[in-house]
Amino acid sequence: MIFKQRFVKSLSAALCLTAVAVSSSMAQAATFRVAVGDGAGSAQHELGLKFSEVFKEKTGGKHDTKLFLNGQLGDEQATVNDASMGLLDFSILAINNVTPFSPSVGVLTLPYMMQSVDDAVALTQGEVGQKLVENTIRDAGVRIVGWTYTGFRVLTNSKHPVNSLEDLQDLKIRVPQNEIMIDTYRAWGINPTPMAWSETFTGLQLGVVDGQDNPYLTVYSMKFDEVQKYITDIRYLFSIEPLIVSESVFQSQPDDVQQAILEAGKAATEHSAKWLVEQEDKIKAELVSRGMEITQPANGEKEWMEKAISQVWPKYYDQLGGKDELNKILKSLGRDEI
């Protein structure tokens, strides 16, 4: 009996020592995987590089990250699901791919909600952004720790210049699986084609769709100039692409690593806003030099804006927290209430 008690105590002690050793080993070094939807040279890639640099610095070189570009770890919605289950550490992806898991972030995809880089920064880094962070933790099991500012989504197509809504009617336009964006195009008079991001280039190349919309930085990094000729400089949606971390992975880290993640995310966010301003004009000029033609919509996009706001916004009041909540957001941006 005494032998048995001693054996149990010895076994328990050995298991405790093993657990401490494993825990200590994990604390010593780790390389976190970061899924990136876009390719090299994109705003997502730039954010990822800055995050990795600062994170490694903040952890004294003990921890590192590895970026997997061009959706190598799965399409963007799949990475949210994987992160929520703790199967993936980080992902950088378009906000519309978070919306199915946490509907309130859809406020950032309302057409013409944001009308400048300053609006995007104010929303994501202020009270609204903090509330969205809390909502994604609650709803999706992921935490937003950084924001990529990629610019306004412009319309591209392979057929002809688009100056008005009438010019849009004969085009097949690809959109993400996002109801607000789909309804925006319906308000403009066409039924868009929902298509996975990983299939978009091939869809454009084969003529399955004629066009798509994405920021200049994405058009450039994804080499859409090879399969698209015309750009319409619309400004209906400012593209924001968060950096998310699995909440279970985040909570499993010691306090100093959690703090490093948050500080690196903040530094990468600030860098992203500056980088966008520095790069966008250069990239527009480069796309023109490659043969793309840029058209400005007639009448300052007035008709596009009126149809989108009047027909799309009311459908999503309840989903996004109610009309009063949207009015608070508009007021914070210095805009008129609805």
Reported by name, the CATH topology is D-Maltodextrin-Binding Protein, domain 2
Would you count the extended β strands for me? 10
As for the number of domains, it is 1
How far apart are the termini?
79 Å
Q: What percentage of residues falls in helices of 4 or more residues?
A: 40-55%
Strand content: 15-25%
Radius of gyration, taken over Cα atoms and rounded to an integer in Å: 23 Å
- At the first level of CATH, the class is Alpha Beta
Sheet of most strands? 10 strands, mixed
Structural class, from helix and strand content?
A: alpha/beta
CATH architecture: 3-Layer(aba) Sandwich
Which outline best applies?
Answer: globular
Which segments are poorly predicted (pLDDT under 50) over 5 or more consecutive residues?
1-27
- Overall average pLDDT: 91
- Counting DSSP H or I runs of 4 or more residues, the number of helices is 13
String of helices and strands:
HEHEHEHHEHEHEHEHEEHHEHH
User: CATH superfamily, called what?
Assistant: Bacterial extracellular solute-binding protein, family 7
Description:
The protein is an alpha/beta fold. The chain has a single domain (31-332), classed as D-Maltodextrin-Binding Protein, domain 2 (3-Layer(aba) Sandwich). Helices cover 49% and strands 17% of the residues. Strands 1, 2, 3, 4, 5, 6, 7, 8, 9 and 10 form a ten-stranded mixed β-sheet that branches. Helix 4 (117-125) packs across helix 5. The radius of gyration is 23 Å and the shape is globular. The termini are far apart. Mean pLDDT is 91; it is low at 1-27.
